[in-house]
Design brief:
Elements: H1 7-15, H2 36-48, H3 61-77, E1 85-89, H4 92-105, E2 114-118, H5 124-132, E3 135-139, H6 149-155, E4 160-166, H7 178-187, E5 191-195, H8 203-208, E6 225-229, E7 241-245, H9 248-251, E8 256-258, E9 266-268, H10 277-314, E10 319-321, E11 329-334, H11 340-349, E12 355-357, E13 366-370, H12 379-396, H13 403-411, H14 419-429, E14 433-434, E15 440-441, H15 447-455, H16 458-472
Parallel strand pairs: 2-3, 2-4, 4-5, 5-6
Antiparallel strand pairs: 1-7, 6-7, 8-9, 10-11, 11-13, 12-13, 14-15
Helix pairs in contact: 2-10, 3-10, 4-5, 6-7, 10-12, 11-12, 11-15, 14-16
Length: 485
C-alpha cells in the first residue's frame, strides 16, 4: 500500500522529476526573476486567497480591487487611452480566445466570420478558430519572419472580424509591423489584436532602456485590443494574463450572462465561472512589490542576458541566430554538421532546458530560448554549456531518419488511423514504451523522436501527439476498500 500519511513528502518526491522553476536554466515554460522574496511573497498571497472565488465581485470585492489595480498598471505600460478597460484571465490562451470571441460576437451580421493572421501567430488563435467557428486566413511571413503587412491587407475582406499581429512572435522573437497592419484594419472598420503575451510586460521597459522597439502598443492607431501575460515577464505566479480593450464598447461582446434557468443569474467576464482568487492575489502582490522601478531593473537584467546569449552564439561554430531578437525570445539554428534536436538533448544532460521547434513552411528545425532575468547570473555557464552541447552534437553528427520510415509516414492518413495503428506508431517513434512494472516509460533523450516528428506533416504530428497525450493521461485508480493491494 502507498503511504498517504504525509502528502507533502510525496509531493516533494514527485516534484523532484520536474524541470526546475528557479535558477534561470529552464528557458521555456517558466520565467524566473531570480528574487527569492518575490517567490515567497507570491506563495503566501496565493495561499491566502486559494479558497476565494472571483466569480462574484460583490462577494469578494478585494479581488475586484486587485484586478482593477492590475489592469490600471497594464494600461499605463501600453499607452492605453482614457476609457480603456481590461480583464484578468487565466493565461495568454484565454486572453486570445476572448479577443477572438469578442470580435466574432461584435459582428452577428457575418455568417462565416474570418480572421487574418500571419503564419507565425500563436497556435492559440487556431484553437480559437476551432472553438468559435472563425475561419483562419493564414498569410505567409516575410524572410525576416515578420508579418507581411501588404499581404495581410490584401487578405482582409467583408468576412474579416479581426486582424492579428504579434509583439513579439513566440517562435522567432520579432515584432510584427503593427502600425501597417492596424492601419489597414482600421481603414475597413476591422478590429486589430496585438498578441503581446510575451512582450507586453517587458517591451515598454526595453524602450525606456534605449533599445529599438517597433511601435506596437495602443499608441498605434487602429490597435483595438492587446493581451499581455503577467505570469511571464511580470514574474507572477502561473495562471494570470490581462486582456485590454481600447474602449468598454469593444469589450462588451466578451461578457456572458444567462438568467434563463432557476438558479443565480450567471455573469462572466472570462470563459471561466468559478476562478480561484489565488493567482490574482499572487500577481497583485508581486506587481505591488516590484513596481515600475523593479520591473525596469529586471528588464535591464533580462536584456543583458539576451545580449550575452547573442554574443555566445556569434562566437560558436555550428550554430547561429535564426533572426536577431527584438525581445527576450531567441531562436537558434544549426548548420549541417549537427542538428537542433541533439543540441537540446545535450543541453538538458548538462542541466539546461531549451525547447526544440520543428520544421515549418520550408524552414528547418530550430531551438527556442525564453530568457529570464535570473539567467544573467549564469551567462558564463550558459556559454560553456552551449559550446559543450554543440561540440557533442557535431561529434555525433546529425540525426537521420531511415528513408523507408519517411516514406511510410508520408503514406499515412492521420484521419484514418485506428487506435492500434497509433499504438504501433507511438512505440515505433519512441514516444511511448513500457517499464518493467507496466508504467508508461518516456525516453531519456528525444533527438530521434523529434527527428521522426520533424519529417511528418503537421497533421500527422498533431495526430501522433494527441495519441501520446491520451496515453499519458490515464487514471491511477486506488484499490477499493476490502480488496487486496
Amino acid at each position: 500500500m502507498t503511504d498517504r500519511s504525509d502528502p507533502l513528502t510525496r509531493l516533494r518526491a514527485l516534484q523532484a522529476g520536474d524541470l526546475p522553476v528557479h535558477g534561470g536554466r529552464t528557458l521555456a515554460y517558466v520565467f524566473d526573476s531570480g528574487l527569492p522574496e518575490v517567490d515567497r511573497l507570491a506563495r503566501e498571497a496565493v495561499a491566502a486567497y486559494a479558497a476565494s472565488n472571483a466569480l462574484d465581485p460583490t462577494a469578494f470585492p478585494s479581488l475586484l480591487t486587485m484586478e482593477n489595480d492590475l489592469v490600471g498598471f497594464a494600461c499605463n505600460l501600453v499607452d492605453a487611452p482614457e476609457g480603456a478597460v481590461g480583464t484578468v484571465t487565466s493565461g495568454g490562451t484565454e486572453s486570445v480566445l476572448l479577443a477572438v470571441q469578442a470580435a466574432r460576437d461584435s459582428r452577428p451580421d457575418i455568417d462565416r466570420p474570418s480572421m487574418v493572421l500571419p503564419a507565425t501567430a500563436h497556435a492559440a488563435f487556431h484553437k480559437a478558430a476551432h472553438y468559435f467557428g472563425v475561419r483562419s486566413v493564414v498569410v505567409p511571413v516575410g524572410p525576416d519572419f515578420r508579418a507581411d503587412a501588404a499581404a495581410m491587407e490584401q487578405a482582409l475582406d467583408e468576412t474579416t472580424v479581426l486582424a492579428v499581429a504579434s509583439a513579439p512572435s513566440y517562435a522567432h522573437g520579432v515584432v510584427d509591423p503593427v502600425g501597417e497592419i492596424a492601419a489597414a484594419a482600421h481603414a475597413r472598420g476591422i478590429r486589430c489584436h496585438v498578441d503581446a503575451c510575451i512582450g507586453g510586460w517587458v517591451l515598454p521597459y526595453a524602450a525606456r532602456l534605449g533599445r529599438a522597439i517597433p511601435p506596437w502598443s495602443f499608441a498605434v492607431e487602429g490597435v483595438t485590443s492587446i493581451s499581455l501575460d503577467t505570469h511571464k515577464y511580470a514574474y507572477a505566479p502561473k495562471g494570470t494574463s490581462i486582456l485590454l480593450h481600447r474602449t468598454a464598447e469593444l469589450r462588451r461582446p466578451q461578457f456572458f450572462a444567462s438568467a434563463d434557468w432557476p438558479g443565480y443569474t450567471m455573469l462572466n467576464s472570462t470563459m471561466q465561472s468559478t476562478r480561484s482568487g489565488g493567482p490574482v492575489a499572487g500577481t497583485w502582490a508581486v506587481v505591488q512589490h516590484l513596481g515600475d522601478e523593479g520591473y525596469l531593473r529586471l528588464a535591464r537584467e533580462v536584456f543583458e542576458a539576451v545580449d550575452a546569449v547573442v554574443a555566445t552564439v556569434a562566437a560558436q561554430p555550428g550554430i547561429s541566430l535564426v533572426v536577431a531578437p527584438d525581445s527576450t525570445l531567441v531562436a537558434l539554428e544549426t548548420d549541417d554538421t549537427c542538428d537542433p534536436f541533439t543540441v537540446t538533448d545535450e543541453m538538458l544532460a548538462r542541466g539546461w532546458y531549451v525547447q526544440p521547434q520543428l520544421s515549418f513552411a520550408g524552414r528547418g528545425p530550430s531551438i527556442h530560448l525564453s530568457v529570464s532575468a535570473a539567467t544573467l547570473a549564469h551567462a558564463e555557464e550558459l556559454r560553456t554549456t552551449l559550446g559543450e552541447a554543440v561540440a557533442a552534437a557535431r561529434a555525433a553528427g546529425p540525426v537521420r531518419v531511415d528513408p523507408e520510415v519517411v516514406a511510410f509516414i508520408d503514406a499515412l492518413d492521420p484521419a484514418a488511423l485506428s487506435g492500434d495503428d497509433f499504438d504501433g506508431l507511438l512505440a515505433a517513434s519512441g514516444l511511448v514504451g513500457t517499464s518493467e512494472d507496466g508504467a508508461l516509460a518516456l525516453p531519456a533523450r528525444m533527438a530521434e523522436v523529434n527527428a521522426m516528428l520533424d519529417v511528418a506533416s503537421p497533421a500527422m504530428r498533431e495526430a501522433l501527439l494527441i495519441a501520446f497525450l491520451d496515453r499519458l493521461q490515464r487514471p491511477v485508480r486506488p484499490h477499493a476498500p476490502g480488496r487486496e493491494a
